[in-house]
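During the reporting period the student researcher (J.K.) took over the structure-prediction task from the postdoctoral fellow and processed the backlog of single-chain submissions. One of the processed entries is reproduced below for the supervisory committee.
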Amino acid sequence: MVKVLRPGFYSTIQDLGRLGAMHYGVPQSGVMDRYATGLANMLLGNDETAAVLEMTMTGCVLAFETDTYICLSGADMSPKLNDQIIACHKPIKIMAGDVLSFGKLQTGFRCYLAVSGGFKTKAVLASRSMYQGITKQAVLLKDDELPIAASKTLNTVHHAGIRLNSKYLLDPLLPVYKGPEFELLTPEQQSLLLSLDFTISATHNRMGYHLKELLPNVLEAIITAPVLPGTVQLTPSGTLIVLMRDCQTTGGYPRVLQLSDMAMCVLAQKLTGQTVCFELL
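J.K. obtained the following structure tokens:
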């Protein structure tokens, strides 16, 4: 068991998402940065679907009541175990009674904590990902108790090192595909879309990121159509909205671009005021 002493700003349990339920109007959810979580789970010998703890901007304070191994990845939030600095992207042995805490945010925006065997919170619609109205609660709260399996040994054998791509935490480039309505844009609009630097506005969360710079727009709204995490919508005002993991399942704004999987990870680690640009694949 892991007890939440302090939950941080916005911390949730997430896995790869609630796949196969969008026809019910249920968002996919899941981890915002699949690269980071895939790495952490791999280093612990976990299945890629194992649930992790996603922390946004500030970290939790957690008390472990069970022996286990952990691995941290994604943003560097200056982690400490029993007030001693520990490394990210490396399996760490945990003993019952240990306390994990976090300090200043150094790079990135979202940090991930994986435990050996994954978090064992209740699954709803085949996923442990927290989402308002689907799971009992939407975020972690003080004194929550998170079940985990006891682990005395690490479930992996080391035969090679791992080359970490940490540059993506600072990379402004978002590789994208053309969206269904991309060709409705004029050549001038297309050129602007793929050449401008766009600033992350203060309006960003797990549902979507709004970009500050406007793209001149005369397109009419479309008939409500399917959208996915990574869909870039163009509103009548010219605002671009990049849909993220908790996005709705349909929308009526033109879908001008679609982020690649890696672009989703890059954007998930961006803060207000940072800039991004699109590169067509």
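The committee noted the following: Residues 34-44 form the longest helix (11 residues).
J.K. will present the remaining backlog at the next meeting.
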